[in-house]
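Colleagues,

For the teaching module next term, I've prepared a clean inverse folding example: a structure given as tokens, and then the sequence designed for it. I'd like students to try predicting residues themselves before seeing the answer, so please don't circulate the second half yet.
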């Protein structure tokens, strides 16, 4: 559970204790103390945090942030691990003090000595390299890997292809999987203004955790208010990021996310033990408080060119909908009232066997007013969550707040309901994939064959009876690669031999230069007026900001030329928000 230490500058020991108690109530085991080098908050916060942990009985470990203020000196890391690594409240794995990072692959070689002198168990996040290169950066240094890729691309739902890549290259070494509920940031001082699709992310990601069963799950984050993915409480004295980041307004204040923790005891028990018991039914709700059209988008993009992603208007990413999940012991009905206008809801996802977490959403449909979500069974109300209002007049400075409000209500009565099958006894019963893999995975995953390198499992449950085998041997078509092999073999044998992907003649397979599962990048673009030349150059290399350029071609990312030690800035009289990033990229 990532906690940004810099945001605890004004925490007392008691503040730490309260946050740890909240985390314990959610069945979270430890805080990963994300620390930037040289931050004056670090030293006093560590003293308070470990003192609080001793009172509460909580665990902590270090996550050294190499991106915030640059690289950590090796000696400083050794000193901190030597001082705190043997503390009884420092998290140990296999008898060793556990330590992670945010980035820092340029210092990878340091960790050979750090491990030798501290005996730590090292699981870094070197996501900028990808799994294979991260393991090669300093062979033998990582004991496992953590990925920061916890958000989907563009309008897509979250998939598990990056996770699968990590698990493949780790080849039995442990993987720490990221889980996050949201992402929105608008901090010009940090050159950050984008969002990723979080509409159903919190639900989807936990389903993916159950299927992949990683060694650890790290939730991003507890208190990163500037990126809107906090699930811890708000603290009025912890909003420095909005001042330092030159935010137009504080988009976290008043937007509670605590209730994203409400179903974690059930989910974490399911993940850790394979089973969990529901004692109280309830409903969890999240939505943005203003329709998208009510405000300007604040210059926010969906996706970010800072990671060479194709950018979208945010309205193509996030939808004007009320999202809800319900923890239920048996099927129930759901209705949503917005300003007194009632819609009968439905479930897009339901647990196999009827016990577990259901999920769905309804559109705003132009309605405003208080949101009330009610779950009922046979006409009797189980619980009714009375939330905040959807309002067209709450745009601060006329700018859309893409951060959601979250609420939960539980029933007053208790029950006892446990899924019949443990997670280890379940198989995939629904899945998907991109392009030609959509049909292949849709069929095979429904019968329990859902290879993680090719498909995304979206639901688990009891094994379905397999169709009668046909005896047909399926192979990928000419021009395809080995990712299709197992699927064609399975599907053709069971009666769904997709002619667009599979045949009955074995042919030589291709070796792809780009993964079938990587999203496209921009490979050509243009702009108006004196932006034309800048956009033509930068869009070729995947850097095609939507506020300045139009992407005209998509394909595999073309790596830009080696960077030069040249800084570029917007010319006098030109809009720095439009020209600045382009000039910086093209000149460098």
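(Answer key — instructors only)
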């Amino acid at each position: 559970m990532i906690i940004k230490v810099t945001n605890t500058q004004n925490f007392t020991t008691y503040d730490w204790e309260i946050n740890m108690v909240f985390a314990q109530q959610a069945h979270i085991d430890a805080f990963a103390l994300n620390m930037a080098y040289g931050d004056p908050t670090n030293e006093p916060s560590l003293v308070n945090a470990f003192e609080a942990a001793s009172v509460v009985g909580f665990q902590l470990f270090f996550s050294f942030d190499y991106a915030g203020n640059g690289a950590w000196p090796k000696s400083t890391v050794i000193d901190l691990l030597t001082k705190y690594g043997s503390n009884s409240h420092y998290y140990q794995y296999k008898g060793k003090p556990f330590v992670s990072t945010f980035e820092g692959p340029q210092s990878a070689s340091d960790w050979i000595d750090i491990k030798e002198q501290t005996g730590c168990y090292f699981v870094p996040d070197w996501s900028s390299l990808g799994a294979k290169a991260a393991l090669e950066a300093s062979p033998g240094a990582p004991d496992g890997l953590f990925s920061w890729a916890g958000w989907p691309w563009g309008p897509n739902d979250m998939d598990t292809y990056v996770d699968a890549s990590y698990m493949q290259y780790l080849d039995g070494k442990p993987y720490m999987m990221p889980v996050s509920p949201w992402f929105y940031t608008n901090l010009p001082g940090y050159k950050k203004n984008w969002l990723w699709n979080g509409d159903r992310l919190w639900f989807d990601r936990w389903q993916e955790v159950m299927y992949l069963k990683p060694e650890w799950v790290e939730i991003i984050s507890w208190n990163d208010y500037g990126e809107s993915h906090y699930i811890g409480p708000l603290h009025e004295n912890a909003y420095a990021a909005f001042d330092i980041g030159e935010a137009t307004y504080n988009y976290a204040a008043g937007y509670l996310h605590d209730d994203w923790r409400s179903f974690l005891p059930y989910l974490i028990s399911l993940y850790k033990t394979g089973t969990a018991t529901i004692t109280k039914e309830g409903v969890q709700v999240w939505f943005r408080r203003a329709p998208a059209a009510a405000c300007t988008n604040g210059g926010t993009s969906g996706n970010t060119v800072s990671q060479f992603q194709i950018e979208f208007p945010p309205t193509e990413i996030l939808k004007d909908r009320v999202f809800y999940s319900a923890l239920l012991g048996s099927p129930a009905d759901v209705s949503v009232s917005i300003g007194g206008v009632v819609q009968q809801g439905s479930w897009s996802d339901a647990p196999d066997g009827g016990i577990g977490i259901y999920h769905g959403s309804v559109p705003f449909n132009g309605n405003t007013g208080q949101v009330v979500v009610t779950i009922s069974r046979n006409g009797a109300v189980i619980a009714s969550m009375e939330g905040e209002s959807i309002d067209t007049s709450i745009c601060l400075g006329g700018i859309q707040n893409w951060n959601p409000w979250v609420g939960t209500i539980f029933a007053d009565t208790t029950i006892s309901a446990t899924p019949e099958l443990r997670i280890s006894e379940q198989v995939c019963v629904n899945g998907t994939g991109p392009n030609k893999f959509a049909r292949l995975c849709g069929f095979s995953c429904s019968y329990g064959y859902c290879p993680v390198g090719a498909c995304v499992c979206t639901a688990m449950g009891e094994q379905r009876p397999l169709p009668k085998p046909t005896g047909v041997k399926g192979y990928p078509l000419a021009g395809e690669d080995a990712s299709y092999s197992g699927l064609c073999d399975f599907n053709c044998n069971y009666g769904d031999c997709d002619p667009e992907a599979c045949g009955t003649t074995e042919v030589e397979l291709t070796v792809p230069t780009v993964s079938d599962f990587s999203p496209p990048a921009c490979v050509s673009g243009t702009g108006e007026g004196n932006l034309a030349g800048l956009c033509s150059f930068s869009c070729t290399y995947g850097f095609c900001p939507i506020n300045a350029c139009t992407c005209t071609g998509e394909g595999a990312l073309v790596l830009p030329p080696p960077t030069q030690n040249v800084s570029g800035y917007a010319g006098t009289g030109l809009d720095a928000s439009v020209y600045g990033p382009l000039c910086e990229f093209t000149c460098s």
